[in-house]
Amino acid sequence: MYLDALDNLTRKKKNKGEEVTEQDKEDLIKSVVSKMEQKVEELRYVNELLEKHLTEIPQGVHRVIDMAGGAGDVGLGITTQLLSEGRDINHVEIVDPQTGTDLFMHTIIDHLPFQQELEKIVHHALEHNNGYLQNADITPDAMVVAKHACGTLTDDSLDLWKDSDSKIFVAMTCCQDKACGHPSRYDIPQEEWDRLTTESGWTNLEDEIGKSSGQKKKELEEKMIKGKEAMKILDMARVDYLRRHGFQAELYMTDKFPKGDVIIARRLPKNFLIKLKEIEQLEKDDPTTFDNLRLKLDYLIKGKGSARGAKVENMLREFGDDWVLEDFIEIDRRLDPTIADAEVKEILSDLKKRAARERTRIVKEREEREEQKAEKAREKEFMDALFADSRGRIDIYARQHAEKTGVTIPYNKFNTVINALQNKINRMKGENLEQIRISLDKIMEEMGY
């Protein structure tokens, strides 16, 4: 990592006609060490979050796929944790096209617990294909993870996972400024998408803020706050998108890192949204039965012992054999949204309203352009008919009329003549063309042309 950073710094200095100094190297070492320490803290944070969700990870998960994973630090970290919990992980795929990342991956493995086991099960996509996301083999028994996948890569990974049969998705999101200009997603208006993705790149201004003071520092701090808010909105949109498409999804935010938002999503039963709509309709049609169902759910979630087991079996017969306790917890939560859920809905509702306004504006502007185009066509048709003997041009008509009287319109008078003729035409629009020409001829004669 240091050598790559030094190579980049050397190129930048060379472009400026400068050389890398010893002080530059010392500063670079400090920066690289700081970044490595942050990487370790980020991995620890993701693993701590994942530990809280271990019960939600099906026992049938045997593979880990790290999308846009570089050397695979997050994939390796999560796999190590799963192995330490006794999970049967038999294949880990690090998906990234960057040359050299596969070599660095093996260096990381040398310093991890379960080294021998990891050497057997971990593979880098570069070893058997080009390492692009679309070539990732996302199987039903796979857990898909992504950490700081830049540009559209987080969203591409999310879409690939959504369209697979994999059960679990974990992503530590990244700034999306490189996604600016790409087609917007999640029903966000294009203008808003470009603004939010651009501003999300303002989250890593801490170093610059530390070197600044006064008004400049205040401006940078305000800019970083905007950047964090932009990232929050983009991540909320991702979570809402997943929930709307039948997944359980949660957003975890932290101030520990500039880009510390984590999304953990889980595939729900295929009939989850259908059941949710049925229950929501039941609340309107039959409140008593709805209340009884909520009591059942509450007892199922909070109850204990054999009675709870019987309740689970009854609910499974009613909802489906593929439902698990976490699914009932999720449907109960959806029926009683939290303040955080309400905040997400409010923010995204505002974005959708902006989207509707933008669509209305675009349609209106298109209609106005089409009307202007049609008006120009009608105007040309009218002028072609009115000045059929002068190629439809008022200036040629004026010159020809003046020539017939044996005079030439002076250059400094020409615009005055044309304006007088055009004003007469505008006032007589809709009248007989012959009458308009007679009136124009009369104006020319009155002006001596």
UniProtKB/TrEMBL annotation:
InterPro entries: Methyltranfer_dom. Keywords: Coiled coil. Pfam families: Methyltransf_32. Residues 6-53, 348-380 form a coiled coil. Residues 39-178 form the Methyltransferase domain. The keyword Coiled coil applies. The keyword Coiled coil applies. This is Methyltransferase domain-containing protein. It comes from Candidatus Magasanikbacteria bacterium RIFOXYC12_FULL_33_11.
